[in-house]
Amino acid sequence: KELYLLGGGVLLLVLVFKIITDLLNRKSKIKWFLGKKKIQDLQFLTPTKFENYIEELFRSLGYKTKTVGGRGDGGIDVEAEKNGIMHYIQCKKFITRQVPVGAVRDFYGAIADKIDGGKGYFITTNVFTLDAEKFAQDKPIELVDRFKLMEYVKLTNVEIPVIDEGCPKCDGMLIERKGKFGRFLGCSNYPKCDYTNRL
Q1: Nearest residue to 56 (alpha-carbon basis) of 169, 199, 152
Q2: 98 close to 125: Cβ distance less than 8 angstroms
Q3: pLDDT digits (tens, 9 = 90+) for 19-66
Q4: How far is Cα 110 from Cα 104, in angstroms, rounded to an integer?
Q5: CA proximity to 159, closest of 44, 41, 51, 68
Q6: Could you point out which of 8, 25, 55, 152 has its C-alpha 20 to 30 Å from the C-alpha of 191?
């Protein structure tokens, strides 16, 4: 009888362990799928809207930001100032290719004379080659690949724009946000632009 109870207890423990493992695996798969979906959403943005999104992301992290991307931007897409220190950001939507060392080297060349206590952020929707990572190791550059970018997204909860629509008042983009009256679309250039539209 004691052996029977012991065997039943072991069987119960194995069953509980399997249920917990299955739940964790399912949660991990869902988390992976949602992360992949967000990266794909970012990859579908136009280059300008991707830059605007990164600006919004850093603003939510407490930086004073300004988009400077476009033709003649000198390799810098966003300037982000915090505690009197200026940081420089480049945004590149690499979808199928890894970011090569040449792209990181060019970015460093663009910011080397500007950095004074700050650093550069090279942000991509893919990953960096090993050569690119080695090049940045002893430089004031933080390489933000798609995995680290998702950490920033989770940290700030800045919604990725799902509506391909620009702000009617300025050159910003409309981002879905939550307010005390529910979800609404707000301009990415807030507080410079206060345009909103209820969903």
Answers
A1: 152
A2: no
A3: 665 544 454 433 444 456 778 788 877 788 889 899 999 999 999 999
A4: 10
A5: 41
A6: 152
